[in-house]
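Researcher: I'm preparing a figure for a lab meeting and need a structural model of a single chain. I don't have an experimental structure, so a prediction will have to do for now. The sequence is pasted below. Please return the structure as tokens so I can convert it later.
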Amino acid sequence: GRGGAPMPKPTVALSNLIMADITPHFKFYVYGVDGRDIKGKLIDSRNRRFDLFKQGLLAKETGLLARLGMSPKEVENLKRVIFFEGSTFYSARKIQGLERANLPRALVGTKESKKDETPMGDSGDSLTITEVKCYVAPRGLKTTSANVPSAAGVTKSSDPSEARYSVDRRCDDCTKAFTDLEALLQHCSIENHSPVTAPDEEDRVEEPTYETFLAYCNIALQQAMNERMARWGREYIDPTKFKDPKDRNGNDLGVRVFQAYTCEFGMNRPDFKSPLSLTLTVDLRAKLLRNKTVLDQISEGKNPNSARYDQRRVQDFKRRWKGEVVICTYDKKCYSVIDLLFDKSAASMPVPNLAMSHAEYFQKRKNIKLKYPDARPLVAVLGRKDSTIYLPAELVCGNELEPRLKQQLPQIASFMPPERHNAIEEMKRYLQPNAQKTKGKGGGLLPALGIVLKEERFKVPVEVLPLPQIVVSGMRVPERSGTMWAPMLARADYQVNPNRAVKLNVVLVHHENLKNTCKVVYDRIRDLVNGFNSTYRFPNQPCTVVVAGDNERHWGAVERYFGSGSQIPSNVFVIDLCRPLRRAALDAAYPVIKQLLGKSGYLSQFVNFNTYDHGNPRDMRKSNTILQGVARQVLSKCGVRIWWVNIPRSLPLPAVFVGVDVYHAPRKYSEKEGTRVAKASVAAIVVEVMRKPPGESPSVEIYSETFKRERAGQEMELGSAMHQCVSNALRILNVREPRSCFVWRDGVGDAGIQQVAGQEIPQVKAALASAGGPVGGQAAAVAKANQCPISYIVCQKRISTKFLSADGQHAMPTGTLVTGLQGPNYATFYINGTSPPCE
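Model: Understood. Here is the structure written out token by token.
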């Protein structure tokens, strides 16, 4: 729980995990789906399959259920508990006509395959239900009763009569659940319905994997949330609840902040000896939407219906918006802008194949009456399968925030512990049985499926670890400054004799608009770097100044200098003072220049003037704080140990620390490709060797390599890369007999842990065994590898799990350790820092 005064010396924490019960006769069905086109090829499009599914099963007159005599009301009740996923669909109830004995069965056929009243696909497409499986709750999961159906369809009770008359307090013919048995029986008597009972022998009950069980629970949860709230990405919001933040002077910041809920089912327990419980993790996040639409920004106060623009302005607007990501105000979906059509409006542009304009389409299909139907431009965006769709400019907003607004996000878009606590309680009320009716739906969906939220939230014992002894160049940080010790770094003094220091040759690259302030900023950075009196110093003047422009003119200037054939001095360090185009947060030239310099072995440091203008600082203290961080990064890149924590004497040395992460570039619209593309992902592996305790060595030994992945988004299959990097590090740093090894692996979810561990741990062990050269055959290499113990830690930072004080009013203090919340497979611990906890 971020923010607020922490609870002093807590022993118990309240998590944001709501306990849930599974009813005794919980079950669900998974049906296989096979969709093919007229040529017999599989249909890849999920939407196309779904249309066929609705046509073949749910259509009012021609669908299978209607042909078997189900009334429209009965079909609607069943439709609510069916969740289509493309190649499969889930159902909470057995579907008439799709019993195991009737499968495979065509829902939509072709003329050649038509044997009964099965509807035909318009384009020759067909859809067949291939199989069905019935699942119950997985073994080892807590339920509300001991009489839970086993995989054989028989209860665990020794009394068979108990199984015969045991029922859940929910209806098997509609989506109603009840808090007491009397109400259930009265409902069944009036409606001629039946309560849910144990699966019968024909169901051939199977026990699901944890993944299958949770997949069903979370798909059902999504449907339950969709019935209550509006979806925004992966979160859900109440569109009527938002706040308009203001700056310190009372001026509107131009955004609305919505409370967004993220909810997910998981399975947890206090320790590995206890049974698993179904839990619902509820987290509160912020979603921001601009107050000004694209139309507002283009019209600039003019009447949008009549405003017209000359060619120069049109080209300016197109350069500004093409390739940008916009968000729709009505459904919160994001799109990449392809073009702005200044010769079209929503009223004049027809919708293909619908015989209506876009203005009419939004009024009739979306129930949105446009305020400016004649306004130009119309925004062309990239739709599904690289299609082009057109949106009125008054219905979309820019999605990118200005750097100054991003700096204020911790103040305007974060929530105090009481807000998080109240949000969790509110979500509990949304999803509990009979707590809130869903209009026209007949009660809460989750209870109708046999998933019942409890009042109880998961409580865990906590231990507040003592802060480690932090040392800054021999100066111990006092414990009272342990949670805010960065300012202490400015006082570090390495006391290296200037005659023994290495003078770096600084190449200063600056944007052409910074020519009047670059010298002043360089002098400030120089003084901060040299103020540490470390082994590395900046000269009074940079050895070379390179003036750069935007994008190609930026990396081109750097490339010309280093590729000019002139004599480049030794000990070069590049300082790049950049100002990204159009006040963007990131400079497009940054990755290009970093790659160019890194490949040639030159160290570099960027200073972004869009993040903060150090040439004309509004707050000199803030500017100094940022530049102090820059100075520390400069020295760290040179190998100076800026700070360290005490390492236990029991740690066998030399120790090898390996850090692994993969960067995935975001997909952006490419005008050349006509689609959203992303560069290949890049993996970075860093190896640090510690031969002596940190206080006894002023420098660090670090080796790193980067690896281009074969495709965008590729996270796995890094075993060979890790072997190569660790082997090279041990050879180059001359580490002959490592005694311990720690691997930190980032970017891996629970589902991928087993795979990455199986790939990477053996490769790291093999690399450790190769240290010092041949060791006498494979058996000796294995023995040598086993002599070096390995700790393999998967670090998950962006998690939804939060911990609050027992009353929900305070955050946990820094150093809070939680080990009493375990998942089904892997030993887990949580450590709370000055931000939300990492797992």
